[in-house]
Amino acid sequence: MGLCAFPSIVGINLLRAHTGVYVWIFISVACFCQMYNETCKKRYYIFFCVSLILGCIGDAVIVPVAVLPFLLYCVRDILSNKPMRFKRDLLLILLTAGSTVTGIVLDKLYYILGTAEKNSFLETRYFENFDAYTNKLNIYLHAVLGMNGADFTSESILSVDTVFFLIKTLVVLFGFCLIFYHVCHFISGKKWDIISEILSLGFLFVSIVFIITTISTDMLSARYIGTCPYILAVLIIRFMRKKDVFDIHFSMNKIPVWAVALVLGIVLLFRSFMPIHELTLAETEQERVASVLEQYNLKSGYANFWDSSIITVLSEQKVKVRAIAMGEGVGIFPWGCKRSWYEEKANFILIRNPEHAEIGVNYENALRIFETPEKEVDFENYKILIYDHDISDKLRDAV
User: What is the pLDDT of residues 163-178, one digit of tens each?
Assistant: First the structure.
């Protein structure tokens, strides 16, 4: 892993989300390989189904990364001129589809039993216009290079770091060449390395979704492909092992390639090393604005999704902020919330500037819907609209 999985600030930030589902994906891929290749023990079928179910409960990203490649792999065999082990392929299709549906059903059941709401994220996403592809590709390239500590853009040319950027960039390029290589193997039906082919297909699909849809909007959206360094690491290491590259010797047959790879990996890891004592835990803007809300003795109000629950938690519920969405009217933003929360009285609205456009919580909409506040407080990147009456009645129809 030291050869490819370089620590980076970008990678650390992006791995805060969606990492759990990739654990289930890796487990399911390993089980799929065992089930596909040979008669295996029943525990692999159990692990496969459980990992897919848990992955689908937690995160839809498992669909393009794992579910779709599994199904395509089996369908490709069934539709081939010489289908082998038809019953095995059909069983894998049924297990994959059944586990996926079960996970989705259990996900909905979980929220129903917990009396919580979860909106459909995908229902608010669309395909991008063609003229947006250039910008999306730019974000994608920065994300892939950044996660591998190889983003050399805006860096000085005459620097020692240039050498390390070059090495890391070459490794990333090699990894992408292997993705293309394995996708070609899948299309040709050679089945050279099932695990690498499945991972390559999955990463290709999620990359396409990243670029051509509005699911991704900025660098933070690269969390959907946050495990890119580890996928590339697996592909490179498996390729080199299958080609017996690590067993090759040079310099009069004295130095093995694996020793060079080990030294290179250690050097790159130490070069990317970030001592904990040099890192500082930055105070978030939500922490600061929570203190201001407490100073004004505000107890309950509304904000956009990204500033609601976090302020509630940071203030230890001294200030309860609930997520809303604004458009022609106003409604609750049902993502991991309870409708009973919106039955509480409220007397302020927290506006971020610039606002989160996708849920419309901005100054103009707030004034139009909730009318002129008694007082406005400007604080850093926020505007607090304070009312002298209960404004929760505006959400009654939504609840």
Answer: 888 888 898 999 999 9
Reduce the DSSP state of residue 185 to 3 states and report it: helix
Q: Taking a C-beta distance cutoff of 8 angstroms, is the pair 95, 49 a contact?
A: yes
The sign of the CA dihedral 325, 331, 334, 338 is positive
Strand 335-337 and strand 330-332: pairing?
unpaired
pLDDT, tens only, 27-80:
999 999 988 876 778 889 999 999 999 999 878 889 999 999 999 998 988 887
Is the pTM of the predicted complex or chain greater than 0.90? no
Question: Position of tokens 């505000």?
Answer: 298
Q: Using CA atoms, how far apart are residues 296 and 98, in angstroms rounded to an integer?
A: 53
Please tell me the predicted confidence (pLDDT) of residue 260: 78
Helix (H, G, I), strand (E, B) or coil at 114: coil
Please, are residues 149 and 11 in contact by the beta-carbon 8 Å criterion? yes
3-state secondary structure of 246: helix
Q: Where are the beta strands (DSSP E) in 235-353?
A: 249-250, 255-256, 300-303, 320-326, 330-332, 335-337, 348-352
Residue 164 CA to residue 270 CA, distance in Å, equals 11
